[in-house]
Design a protein that fits this description.
7-stranded mixed β-sheet; alpha/beta; binds pyridoxal-5'-phosphate; about 450 residues; Aspartate Aminotransferase, domain 1; about 15% strand; Aspartate Aminotransferase, domain 2
């Protein structure tokens, strides 16, 4: 395979260490050199076309090289590219903070800027801890997180993560997090059907709260979809009850909407479906439509006020990143939010989501190795199982998802499964015809794999 590599592929492998990859895998499957992107398509150096069914790691909303966003970015680049954000500000940041406060659930009035999802999590954890310290609750030093949670890769974020694949090696370095069994609808221990479910599994969280609330600063959760764990979906009722428990036990709720924010679940933010507002909301990924790294943490006046005092009290939140509040990213994010309004994107998501669901169910549910097709908004997932009756998973060493990924790539479809779960998280600009093609190619790839297996 090495000999068939292009010049750029060889030179890439001389020096580049790719994320979340066993680099030895690149011997068989060298990095695909992408030359340009347009809409839902990526084009490699041989002009081969790929449908970007995963929105390039869940960030792209309105297609690659989007006309409006590119123009806004270029315009801003000639105006002001960056300025220190302590003691200074600029119009794009002001407009963006106003817009975010207006769009997010009630009570979130303050916006803190960071530059990727993981650092937003760090900010929320640190703010929650320092809040309690300054409110004379110095014992509240720990966090509660769910099994199968994913909140990013920095040490604080990994500490509240529950996916062994990512955090097991680093366990000696991580914070001592309280862990509660999270919802598991596909393999529900209570045998509930999600449509009528009263979320009895919330009792796992309640038990931990009863036991640990005095030492707990916050609960962190991915609303409606535990994405990195394999697009595990659960009903809004769970969030509603969780919010009530947080109030009862005086523990903050951190909503990590890094993956699900900005329309992915069918509403602008997933929390809306439960009618709740958290104490902290972390946003990133879709915020800049896949253009530039940025994240924000929104919080309440109550939290903000606990830090607001004379300088000598040393109550300030002394956290910063060099690129905090970067004007280019703010301007791009503003354009993204304008597109949501101008093009009635949430209505489009509703319609395209319904179409995708109907077609996907028809296509996949009869397949002998498809345990379930599930969907929330514009996130669809196919869970492959070894045995449909018992829901026994394929052993991870078989790398079933990865094999199907390789077949799909040949067909011009970028899927990148999570273990045995294939998923669709396409840019919202995808058309119904393109949904047909995406689902058809996926179906072919699955069938070819199992025909040859
Ligand atoms: C991706 C993700 C993160 C981390 O964001 P990065 O920008 O990759 O650091 C945090 N939480 C959730 C739910 C995510 O999906």
């Amino acid at each position: 395979m090495i000999s068939t590599m292009s010049d750029l592929q060889k030179r890439d492998l001389n020096h580049v260490w790719h994320p979340c990859s066993q680099m030895k895998d690149y011997e068989d499957l060298p990095p695909i050199v992408i030359k340009k992107g347009k809409g839902i398509y990526l084009y490699d150096e041989n002009d081969k076309e790929y449908i970007d069914a995963v929105s390039s790691w869940w960030v792209n909303l309105f297609g690659h090289s989007n006309e409006r966003i590119s123009k806004a970015l270029a315009d801003q680049a000639f105006q002001l590219e960056h300025v220190i954000f302590a003691n200074f500000t600029h119009e794009p940041a002001v407009l963006l903070s106003e817009k975010l406060v207006q769009l997010t659930p009630y009570g979130l009035h303050k916006v803190f800027f960071a530059d990727n999802g993981s650092s937003a999590i760090e900010v929320a954890l640190k703010m929650s801890f320092q809040y309690h310290l300054q409110k004379n609750k110095p014992k509240k030093t720990r966090f509660l997180a769910l099994t199968d949670a994913y909140h990013g890769e920095t040490l604080g974020a990994l500490s509240v993560g529950g996916v062994d694949l990512y955090n097991k090696v680093f366990r000696p370095l991580l914070l001592d997090t309280v862990r509660a069994q999270g919802p598991n609808c596909f393999r529900c221990p209570f045998n509930e059907r999600s449509e009528s479910c009263n979320v009895p599994c919330i009792s796992y969280v309640e038990e931990k709260l009863k036991e640990h609330h005095q030492e707990l600063s916050a609960i962190i959760i991915e609303p409606l979809i535990q994405a990195a764990a394999g697009m595990k979906m659960y009903p809004p009722g769970y969030l509603k009850q969780l919010k009530e428990l947080c109030e009862k036990y005086d523990v903050h709720l951190i909503a990590d909407e890094v993956a699900v924010g900005f329309g992915r679940t069918g509403t602008m933010f997933a929390c809306e479906q439960a009618g709740i507002s958290p104490d902290f909301m972390c946003l990133s990924k879709g915020l800049t439509g896949g253009y530039l790294p940025m994240s924000v943490v929104l919080t309440t006046d109550e939290v903000y006020d606990a830090f607001y005092d004379d300088y000598e009290t040393m109550k300030a939140f002394l956290h910063s990143h060099s690129y905090t509040g970067n004007p280019l990213t703010c301007r791009v994010a503003l354009e993204v939010l304008k597109i949501f309004e101008d093009e009635k994107v949430l209505d489009q998501i509703k319609e395209k989501g319904a179409y995708m669901r109907e077609l996907a169910i028809r296509t996949f549910e009869g397949h002998p190795f498809v345990g379930e097709y599930r969907q929330t908004g514009m996130v669809g997932a196919i869970e492959l199982v070894k045995d449909k009756e018992t829901k026994e998973p394929f052993p991870s060493k078989d790398r079933v998802g990865y094999q199907i990924y390789k077949i799909a790539l040949e067909k011009g479809l970028l899927l990148r499964p999570l273990g045995n779960i294939l998923y669709f998280m396409p840019p919202y600009v995808i058309t119904k015809d393109e949904i047909n093609i995406m689902i058809e190619k996926t179906n072919e790839a699955i069938r070819e794999f199992f025909a040859n297996d």
